[in-house]
Amino acid sequence: MFKKVFGGILAMLFAGLMSGYVFAAPPIKIGALFSVSGPASFLGEPERNTAKMMVDEINKAGGVKGRQLELIVIDTQGDATKAVQGVNKLIKDDKVVAIMGPSITGDTMAVIPVVEKAGIPLVSCAAGVKITNPVKKWVFKTAQNDALAVPKIFDHMKKQKITKIAIVTVSDGFGSSGREQLVLHAKEFGIQIISDETYGPKDTDMTAQMTKIRGSEAQAIVCWGTNPGPAVVARNVKQLGITLPLYMSHGVSSKKFIDLAGDAAEGIILPSGRVIVANQLPKNDPQKKSLTNYVENYRKHYKVEGDHFGGHAWDAIMLIKEAIERGGDSPAAIRDQLEKTEKFAGIGGTFSFSPSDHAGLTSDAFVLVKIKQKDWTLVQ
Question: Taking the model in full, what pTM does it have?
Answer without folding.
Answer: 0.86
